[in-house]
Design goal:
7 helices, mainly alpha, 55% helix, disordered C terminus, three-stranded antiparallel β-sheet, extended, Ribosomal Protein S8, Chain: A, domain 1
Length: 193
Amino acid sequence: MKRWHRPTLLQFITAFVPALVWMMLWGQYDLATFLSGLIFGTVLAIVFPLPRLQLVGTFRPHWFVVFVAMTLWDLCRASAQIAVLCLKPRLELHNSVIEIPLHSRTDLVMTHTVLLINLVPGTVVVEASPSTRVLHLHVLNAGDDQSRVRAYRRALENERRVARVFAPREEYLKVPEWKAFAEETTYLDWGSR
């Protein structure tokens, strides 16, 4: 016989949030709509259970402040670069697709790295392979080797920032500093993509 356990805060939230969404979808904010949303959310959770997440890592608030500041700086810089490209009278773009092997083995770090890269204008993750830990990036206006190397280093620096905030210490130490990327980028064969 299964023992009854007291519901956790996470279970309460996963039942409560669908009830609020249900009320917003119907546009009625009364007790009956809330209760029907609660029942609907509970049935959904039973019929389509989500797998248990194993969150491995930590949160470092002081590195999070640096992370937010650097991300805002990247957003402003990239937005200005895109604006300059758009205002040119004759637009000639030479885009590239580059392959980025990640150093971290944590899914959380990989996911946040992909989100961070996609957030900044000018780069988009076209493909992310969790098994090989490789990202394929489409980089705007990266026709020469120097700009491709810059995009490569920026992507790995984003991984390092995310690892500093969320990854366990041993995982964070696997990701080299951007100065160490010089050795990695000298032998990359970009090809003609």
